[in-house]
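Chapter review. Work through the record for Histidine--tRNA ligase, cytoplasmic before attempting the end-of-chapter questions.
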Amino acid sequence: MSSLLETCKLLDQSSSALSTIAVAVAALSCEAARANLSAFDLSDSGDGSVAKDDIGVASDIKVLLNGSKLVASSNNGDGKVNINSFSKIPVFNGNVREAVKSLHSVIGVVTNWDEKFGGKVLHLGFELRNLGESSLERVRLNLGSVGFEGVKDIFEKDCLSEESLRNGIKLAVEAGLEKDYVKLVKEVDLILGIVWKIVAWEAVTAFFVLEGAEVLNEKSGGKGGEADGGNVKAERKRKKKVFLGKGTSVIVEVLKDRVMSKGEGLEKVVEELLSFLDPKSPEFDGFLKKVKEVLESNESRRIPKTPKGTRDFAKVQMAIRKKAFSVITKVFERHCATALDTPAFELKETLTGKYGEDSKLIYDLADQGGELCSLRYDLTVPFSRYVAMNGLTSFKRYHIDKVWRRDNPSKGRYREFYQCDFDIAGQYEKMGPDFEVVRILSEVLNGLNIGDYEIKLNHRKLLDGVLEICGVPPAKFRTICSSIDKLDKQPFEQVKKEMVEEKGLSVETADKIGTFVKIRGPPLELLSKIMGGIEGSELLKHDASKEALGDLSVLFEALDKSRCIDKVVFDLSLARGLDYYTGVIFEAAFKGGVQVGSIGAGGRYDNLIGNFGTKQVPAVGMSLGIERVLTIMEEKAQNQTVRATETQVLVAVLGDKLSVAAELVSELWDVDIKAEYKVHKKMMKHIEYAIDSKIPWMIIVGERELNEGIVKLKNIETTNEEVIPRNKLVEELQQRLNP
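Structure tokens for Histidine--tRNA ligase, cytoplasmic:
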């Protein structure tokens, strides 16, 4: 047992070193291949959708390549970003880091081997295989750019292949199934050894692409030696000045110093580099330390970060958000609502007890002068407080603003996010406001053009009737509703286990609930079946359920006449966990490829406003999950052109006279033309900027135009230019912008 643990510790140490060196070597390959860096534009979006170790690897690569002239930025150059061996570097290397950390976390505390521990070793083996295969692809790409055939011949003698890695994993899996942990560790250690050789070869081949000709030429005293033989490609590489990254240049210099102090000849140089990169080499620890110093000393490590569950929005995201908010506001104002704003934080007592089990997600603030406050959890409770505080008996309002929840971030789920709410408070015709808010939700989702969706709809009284019929004690209605509300994320068996083991229901009661919550279908059709006793006939014998069915009958007929019922599904499993709902409840779900969960929800809450005052004012509302909708829109926008600004005209001044630009652009601003200016001596800088920013028109003014009292007006799309008098500029431009 002790010897096995010692072997595992060595495996852990060697894998940890590999996870560092492999990233540095991958950075060298990026330069050798002139790769595009867009694959490394990863950041923590705050929703947990990108693994932290992937982000860490991407950050390390960018640290190493900072200042390099050999790689293309994400906005420039063709590069090789579409080649998996480059675009998958953050994933494969990040997964190895994660697997190493997972194994390391138990090595110091484990006393007995079990399947879980063996699983961590096997998991490391799989991730090492993936990294090895990715590195091997880059070795072959590098070999295609190396100017010396001899390097390829030496490489082929090592017989490194994907097959050896796959065979190693096959043997490791077999050992794991047989619970032969000694063999399992041995096989994973063999895989690690193969991957070390591959990564060493990746370093050697990248080094030869970047510095090989110069090194061999220097070692042969400038006579060419084995680097010569009429090899023009190698000679060109020798002459060309190479600008490496600040980090990779240090690594290349270390490797160069190593080979320059040893014997001459191509084969000897390769041998020395492979020996130097062997983790068993006495000089390896010094090299590893140098790589770590490069990564840890870089200033980018001190760049501030956003808190978990939050994110910044760059110009493209802001353009999408602006468009979305415009569509939503237009719909809300079409339905004649008044805009309302409330404080970002409320008294804690205002929010307490309104959200059921989700109350634990409220952000509490530190005591400020004797008041206990909390950040608002939603926009509905502040709206209800406002209506009660001002003694209103009817109010139709919309509110678009941020809310905060101490939730666990996931894809489309943040701790700080916008909500877009529409609520109707007051006494109206039966089901009138309910119909309108469902219709509004449908209009908004259609207007945003996100794709297919459905609106699940139920009635809280109907759900309470189901629970009473099934034998759930009234005191447990709300907590069981919270369990049922998880059915869109968990299978019924898992929810049933929670209801029985954690909340004390009998198995029979939970199973009976299961028969009801599986009932769903087209609204009018399913309602007809229930009213006819074909499905859920017990509901007709329950007064509250029968009343709810009557409400739904009126609502479904109105939705049918409004031509939006085709998106609605009558679903008895819909619960909505918030305590304040009293009637109709609904929830919208996206049915496209992006998995984001609920994208909108709402319902009737007749008693909430009364909690804050003396009058009971019935109300119904909807809230759009705008962050999740924006996630969908951002995914769609990846294949579309999105303009970050609405600039109509670029005033391009050739030279350095700011005063000329100021005069021209101010004339355009004065007549409400969206314009910006640029002062630069080179024409192509202006044109490139206009094209990149998708600005349709450009006004060109140079020394000649100033002397002759003219300007040139250029159509960027057609490239046509025309000369117009300076004093006619605004008039001519307005005609073209507003034909």
